[in-house]
Specification:
Layout (H helix, E strand, L loop, with lengths): L1 H5 L3 H6 L2 H10 L13 E3 H8 L3 H9 L6 E2 L6 E4 L13 H9 L5 H9 L11 H6 L5 H15 L1
Antiparallel strand pairs: 1-3, 2-3
Helix pairs in contact: 3-4, 6-9
């Protein structure tokens, strides 16, 4: 955050509403959740504030599988794994394609999150798929594994 603030000119800083800036900064603090191994997580409120979008726009992104939102058991609220976002709030590369591939076999965001966060010992140098993608590596091995997993789950 410091690096980004240092890159803003003084003229631009004069145009920034301090309350809005504080709200966006606070939205970046992950919320603890019982599924720690898959988290930390952002809340809907955190993501909408951070990205400056409406709840409806966020819902559209989740429904289109451009972003991963996992429903909680308490009334259908969603949580969003922090690891799916780049520093500027965009989803990691190829996330939508991986989610679409996994959805062909199972329509469950928690299963998708678990798959993305689990280390893959036989490939991906033992790292989770999300980390492989976040590091900007060739996405093809992740997509191959996603297709294999979807094929197994569909049986």
């Amino acid at each position: 955050m410091t690096r980004r603030l240092e890159s803003v000119s003084e003229d631009d800083l004069a145009l920034i509403d301090p309350d809005q800036l504080a709200a966006r900064a606070a939205a970046l603090i992950p919320t603890p959740h019982p599924f720690v191994q898959l988290g930390p997580f952002y809340t809907t409120r955190s993501v909408t504030r951070w990205l400056g979008i409406t709840r409806q726009a966020l819902d559209q992104r989740v429904r289109a599988r451009k972003m991963l939102g996992c429903p909680t058991a308490d009334g259908g609220q969603r949580v969003y794994p922090v690891w799916q976002f780049t520093d500027d709030g965009r989803p990691i590369s190829q996330l939508a394609e991986v989610l679409d591939t996994l959805r062909q076999a199972i329509d469950d965001p928690w299963t998708w999150a678990t798959w993305l966060a689990a280390p893959v010992p036989e490939c991906l140098e033992g790292m989770p798929a999300y980390r492989w993608l976040a590091e900007g590596r060739n996405p093809e091995p992740v997509l191959v594994e996603a297709r294999r997993t979807a094929s197994r789950l569909a049986q």
